[in-house]
Amino acid sequence: MGTSSCIPIFILLLFSPLCKSDDRLTQAKPLFLDDTLISKGGAFALGFYSPTSSNASWYLCIWYHNISKHTVVWTANRDSPITAPSSPMLAITNNSDLVLSDSQGHIHWAVNNDITGMGVVAELLNKGNFVLRRSPNNTTIWESFDHPTDTLLPTAKILFSTGRLVSWKELNDPSTGNFSLSFYSSSTLQFIIWNGTQPYSRILMPNDGSVFGDTYPNIVFSEAIGGTGDGLYYQYTIISDNSPYVRVMLDYMGVLRTLSWNNLSWTNISVRATSDCDLYASCGPFGYCDYVGHVPTCRCLDGFEPVGLGLNFSGGCRRTMALTCGKQSYYLNLTQMKIPDKFLHVPNKSIDDCAAECSNNCLCTAYTMTNQSRCLIWLGELIDTGKYDQYGENLHLRLADSPENNKMVKIVLPIIACMLTLTCIALVSICKYRARKRHKKDTHKRQMIEYLNSSIEIEDEDVDFPFVSFEDIAAATDNFSDSNQIGRGGFGKVYKGILEGVNEVAIKRLSKDSGQGIEEFKNEVVLIAKLQHKNLVRLLGCCIHGDERLLIYEYLPNKSLDTFLFDAARQFVLDWPTRFKIIKGVARGLLYLHQDSRLTIIHRDLKASNILLDSEMVPKISDFGMARIFGGNQQQANTTRVVGTYGYMSPEYVMGGAFSVKSDTYSFGVLLLEIVSGLKISSPQLVMNFVGLTAYAWRLWEDGKAAELVHSSVIETYQLHEALRCIHVGLLCVQDRPDDRPLMSSVIFMLENESALLSAPKKPAYFALRNFETTEPRENIEISVDGVSNTTLVGR
Ligand SMILES: *[C@@H]1O[C@H](CO)[C@@H](O)[C@H](O)[C@H]1NC(C)=O
Ligand SMILES: *[C@@H]1O[C@H](CO)[C@@H](O)[C@H](O)[C@H]1NC(C)=O
Ligand SMILES: *[C@@H]1O[C@H](CO)[C@@H](O)[C@H](O)[C@H]1NC(C)=O
Ligand SMILES: *[C@@H]1O[C@H](CO)[C@@H](O)[C@H](O)[C@H]1NC(C)=O
Ligand SMILES: *[C@@H]1O[C@H](CO)[C@@H](O)[C@H](O)[C@H]1NC(C)=O
Ligand SMILES: *[C@@H]1O[C@H](CO)[C@@H](O)[C@H](O)[C@H]1NC(C)=O
Ligand SMILES: *[C@@H]1O[C@H](CO)[C@@H](O)[C@H](O)[C@H]1NC(C)=O
Ligand SMILES: *[C@@H]1O[C@H](CO)[C@@H](O)[C@H](O)[C@H]1NC(C)=O
Ligand SMILES: *[C@@H]1O[C@H](CO)[C@@H](O)[C@H](O)[C@H]1NC(C)=O
Ligand SMILES: *[C@@H]1O[C@H](CO)[C@@H](O)[C@H](O)[C@H]1NC(C)=O
Ligand SMILES: *[C@@H]1O[C@H](CO)[C@@H](O)[C@H](O)[C@H]1NC(C)=O
Ligand SMILES: *[C@@H]1O[C@H](CO)[C@@H](O)[C@H](O)[C@H]1NC(C)=O
Prior knowledge:
By secondary structure, the protein is α+β, with helices and mostly antiparallel strands. It has 14 helices and 45 strands. Strand 23 (256-261) and strand 24 form a beta hairpin.
C-alpha cells in the first residue's frame, strides 16, 4: 500500500525524496498502514501502532523515532482503534479535513474545519507536535500539542481551562483510563490528579522550585505560566545543552512521572503520588502529611488531636479547645506548609488586612499570605495539607488560645464545668418542685409568653398557636423512638408523630446541649408564629419543658426538594411544569418574607434541603433558625457569626458578614440554577472543568449555549423560552454586587411575564475565588466553628 501511494507522486513531481521519511501529509498523499512521517531532525515519528504483538488493533500515534524502546507520546483514536482485518488510512479530504478511516470507510477520528479547497497540509515537527496548517500563510488550524493524551512534551502548552492529561487504561491499552491531571491557578499554581471524578492527589507548585524538574544532573528545566484569562497555560522546556529526551506522563496507575532517556531505558526524574500520605485528604480534616521524615506520615496540626485510634487518620483530627466566636483568637504560625485545599482568595489585602479578614469571620480557621502576596483564607475544615522540609508557605492557624495555655484550660475547665452542672441541677430541681404546684397548661402558656416577651416585643394576641404538653408529645412519638425519627440536623432530631386533632405532625426536638439552639428556637417560634403563607411551612405548636424545646410543624410527606432533585431515580418526578411551579412558589414565599409580611425577614439559609414539598409538590420554605428580622427602614446588617451553607451564601456575606434581602436573592439564584440543571452547587460532574455551577452556567450563557444547562430529564416536557428565562434570572440573582441583583418582586415579575425585558447579567466573579468544590460525600459543607451549625430538616 505504501508503495502504491508513492507512485502518483513520482509521476507528478518526477522526483521525490524517500517517500516514507517525509514529514508532511498532503491531500495528494494519504498515510497507509506501513507508512510513517518522520520529523525533520529525526526525533519523532507518526504512524500506526498496535500496542499488542498480535497487531489486532491499530492506533494513529506519535513516538520517538530514534530510541530503542517504542515509546508512544500521543494517540489520536485512543477509544476507537481500527481492528484487523480492516486497515487504517490517514488522509486530508477534499474539504480539508484530516480524517482517520478504515478500509470499510468508517471514520475513527477526524479534525474538521471550514476551509475549502486545496488549502491545508499536516506536518510533524521535531518537537513531537503534529500540526495542520493552511498552506499559503502557514496559519495553524489544529495541533496535537493542544490535545495531549497522557504525555506532556517539552514546549507543549497545557491550558488551565481545558487542558488535561488522561492516563492509559492499562500498560498496553491506550484507551481512556481512570486517572487525569489538570492544572489550576486560582491563586497558587496547583495541579490535581483525579481518579474519575474524585481528587486523587493534589500537588502544589513550590514557590521557588519547579513542578516537574526536580534537580537532576545535566537537565535544566525552565517552567513558565503564560497567557491570560481562559488562555492561561503551563509550559516547560529543557534549556540545558545536549539533554536527552524528557517527558512528563501520567501512567495508568495514576503516578505522575517525569522521565528521561539515558541511551538504554527511561529513568525517573521525579515521581508523584506514590505514598499513601500523598493521596488527597488522606490524613483527614485538620490532619497533615508530614514529609519531613524519611517516610511521609499523617499527623494532627498543633492544637488538634486524632479522632481515630493509632495510625488511622480517616476521621482526621479535632480541636483540643473549641473556638468561641467574637473572642480574641490566637494564630499559630506554621512554616513550610503545603497549603490546604478549598481556600478563598481575598484580593488586594496586606498581611495585616488578611489577618483581620480572618478574625472578622467566625468561620475562618486559617489564613496565608502567599509568596505572591495573595491573601488566602479558609472557612471550615482544613483538608489535604502537609509539611515540607524546605519550600512551602506560612500558614496561620486559628486556635482558641496558645497551645501552652490550652494545657491549663484542660485542667481548669472541667472543674468549672462540674460546678456549673451541679448549680444547674439544683436550680432545675427547685424550679420543677415549684412548677408542679401549678396547673400544667397554664404554666406552659404563661412560660411561653414570658419567654417570648423577653426576647422580642410582641403582643399577647400574636401568639395564638397551641401549646402542647411534653407528655402528649412523648406519647405521640412513642417516647421519641428511633422508628419515629425521620431526620436530624445540627440542632437535633425530627420525629413523626400523631397528635390528637391534628393527625400527622413533624416534631423537631432541639438537642439539649446546644446552647445556641435556644436563640434559634426563640427566633423560629416568634417568626413562624406570625407568618402565614402557602409557600412557608406552618408551625402548629410548640413546647417548652425544663430544658426541652420542641417545635411542631405540619407534616409534609414528600420530604425536601433535594431528595428529588439530586436523586437519579426520583428526579424524573420533577417534570418541567413542576420545576417551574416550584421556582415560582419559592420566589413567592421569599417575597412574602421580604416584603409582604409585617416585617422584613431575611432567611439566610435558603437551599434545596430547606424547601419541603407537600403532596401536590407545592414548595414550602422551612427552617427559620438562621432568619433575622429587620425593623422599620433597616436595609442591611452585619454579623460576626456567618452561618449558612457554603455555595449558597453570597460573596459579601461570606467575606464580610453583611446580609440583606439581596443575600437571599443570591441563594435563590443558586437554587434556581440547581432546579433547572439538576446539578448541585458543588457538583462532581462539573469539577473537571469548572469551579462550580455558577461558573458553568455563566460559560454556557456566554457561549450562547444556555439550553445545554437544562437537565436531560425535562427535555421532553420543557418550554425552551421558560427555561432560558429562568437561567437568565438565575444569573441576574447571583451577580457579585448586591445592588445589581433584583428584588424578589422583580424576580417574580420577570418569571411570570414573558414580555418583561431583562438586563444582561454581569459575570459572577465569585467563582474565580474558589479553587474547586468538594466532591466528597458530604453534600453541603455545613461549617461549624463555634459549635453552631445550621439545621437540616430532612425526611419530612
Ligand atoms: C536522536 O535524535 C536526536 C535529535 O535529533 C539526537 O539528538 C540524538 O542524538 C539521536 N539519538 C540517537 C540514538 O540517534
Ligand atoms: C505486527 O506488526 C509488526 C510491524 O508492523 C511486525 O513486525 C510483526 O511481525 C507483526 N506481528 C504479527 C503477529 O503479525
Ligand atoms: C476530491 O477531488 C478530486 C479532484 O478534484 C476528485 O477526483 C475526487 O473524486 C474528490 N474526492 C471526493 C471524495 O470527493
Ligand atoms: C511555511 O512553513 C514552511 C516550513 O515550515 C516554510 O518553508 C515556508 O517558508 C513557510 N511559509 C510562509 C509563508 O511563512
Ligand atoms: C491566511 O490566509 C487565509 C486565506 O488566504 C486568510 O483567510 C487568513 O486570514 C490568513 N491568515 C493570516 C493570519 O494572515
Ligand atoms: C478504574 O476504575 C474501575 C471502576 O471505576 C476499577 O474497577 C478499576 O480497578 C480502576 N483501575 C485502577 C487502575 O484504579
Ligand atoms: C479509583 O476509583 C475507583 C472507583 O471509582 C476504585 O475502584 C479504584 O480503586 C481507585 N483507584 C485507586 C488507585 O485509588
Ligand atoms: C548517551 O550516549 C552518548 C554517546 O554514546 C553519551 O555522550 C551520553 O552521555 C549518553 N547519555 C546518557 C544519559 O548516558
Ligand atoms: C519509576 O517510578 C515508577 C513508579 O513509581 C516505578 O514503578 C519504577 O520502578 C521507577 N523506575 C525506576 C527505573 O526507578
Ligand atoms: C478508621 O476509623 C474509622 C472511623 O474513624 C473507621 O470507620 C474505619 O473502619 C477505621 N479504619 C481502620 C483501618 O481501622
Ligand atoms: C511566620 O514564621 C516565619 C518563619 O519563622 C516568618 O518569616 C514570618 O514572618 C512569620 N509570620 C508572622 C506573621 O509572624
Ligand atoms: C486591586 O488593586 C489594584 C491596584 O491597586 C486595582 O486596580 C484593582 O481594581 C483592585 N482590585 C480590587 C478587587 O479591589
